[in-house]
Amino acid sequence: MIDGVDYAQRYIEDVRAGEELARVEDEITYRRVIMNPATTWDYFPGHHDPEYARAQGQPTIYVNTMHFLGFIDRLIAEWAGPRSFLARRKISLHQSIYAGDTMVGGGHVVGTRREERAGRVRHLVDVEMTLGNQRGERCASVLATVALPSRTAADRDPLW
Amino acid sequence: MSALGSTGYDIATGTFEDAKAMIGHTTPVRFGEVPVNVAMVRHFAAMVRDANAGFWDEEFATEQWGGIIAPPAMLMTWVMPLEWKPGSDLPVPLLTARVPLPGTTFVNASNDTEFFEPIRVGDILNISEELVDVSPEKRTAIGTGHFVTTSSTFRRQDGTLVARMTNVLFRFVEAPVEETPAEEPDQ
Fold it and tell me: Contact, A108 vs A48, CB < 8 A?
């Protein structure tokens, strides 16, 4: 076990519809927006050139889609645990999150599903999430499906 | 020349009819430039502050997944072109930037990805993209343009299907003044 690393696991039996995911706030500095091209190789200038962003009609540089997705994946895994598998995630982007903003994420469980494929059972949880900013504006809406292990048959149930 | 003259991408320009004629076009399979690797995984995890044991604990990750895994969010990263490489000209942009349209710039509108396999260190991913749809001209708060829908298939070097992604991008000419409310893409 490594200090600070997340190991806490949730099992399908623990999940209830309506359950809330922890709300997370993350400060988006210029430094972190510049990490977008550094980490994702996405050199679209809207993520590193404020002059370009302003010519686009935006106040300054903004985080890329992969940063939104990474923040979502983090919030889902912090709730579900590291033995969960993200099966699907749909995001609609409504508004950019800019350098100087705070990214705010949260969500809730819509419900659980039992999926049978080729004689194998998979336990799926549908999660609805919203990403916003410090002004309370909605920046993105998300629907995600995550596969969780079961306490009773954790060794046999496939996650993917 | 405005800053929009240089997106860093070679954006194809043309008419809505040119773009519609391209619907159904599928790109050849293109491999990523580097294998999935721990350095890039941890750099990304540091950006989004993700303490997932699958990225940070080799022992845990090997037992659970067969090796350190990549955040699902990094899917696209593994097939991003390098800015330069020996013997090569400009990087080949993604299909969305190669659709001929009047728009001078773009923002992303939506993304829907389904995952079939964990992405592990050592995997080399490839991508094939298809142009699925180009919307008629729409006016939004940020400008007038077209929504471009592409569908991408990601496979591993052994041919295993890893993910399918549908992306909608708004290709537009920026509005001089904000006067209309933003319009959502139809989907």
Answer: no
- The residue ranking higher by pLDDT, A97 or B5, is A97
Give domain status of residue A43, yes or no: yes
CB pair distance less than 8 Å for B175 and A67: no
Q: Does residue A24 form part of some domain?
A: yes
Q: What's the number of domains chain A is made of?
A: 1
* Token pair in block for residue A70: 């990474």
With respect to residue A159, please indicate whether it lies within any of the assigned structural domains. no
Asked whether B106 and B147 are in contact (CB, 8 A), the reply is no
How far, in Å, CA of B119 to CA of B69, rounded?
Answer: 5
CA distance A30 to B175: 26
Decide: pTM greater than 0.90: yes
> What interface predicted TM-score (ipTM) does this complex get?
0.96
Chain B, window 90-149: residues with a beta carbon less than 8 angstroms from a chain A beta carbon: 105, 107-118, 142-143
Sketch out chain B's domains with CATH numbers.
3-33+82-174 (3.10.129)
What SS3 state is found at B179? coil
